[in-house]
Amino acid sequence: EVQLVESGGGSVQAGGSLRLSCAASGFTFDNCDVGWYRQAAGHEYDLVSTISSDGSTAYADSVKGRFTVSQDNAKNTVYLQMNSLKLEDTAVYYCAATYWGQGTQVTVSS
Q: In the predicted model, is pLDDT for residue 1 greater than 90?
């Protein structure tokens, strides 16, 4: 059974940091592109960041310079380091690579 499981979400004050993890089972991230998405309440899904099979990364303008995506193939896990969090970063965050995880809630408060 293929599963992507996100973890690391939580509540943090503005300016704080969180690191999200996306662990895969029954599936490997090798040779595939992985995306981090988020959905704020009442909004559409937004693409936050991607990491390609060649290691190249991309970010939405709203998170550039604050978020960093990385991948550990030995652990079959993709990470999203989120620094200098803002209120508007509050959302459910999902990782996706053909399959989608269940999401992890990130809440940023003032």
A: no
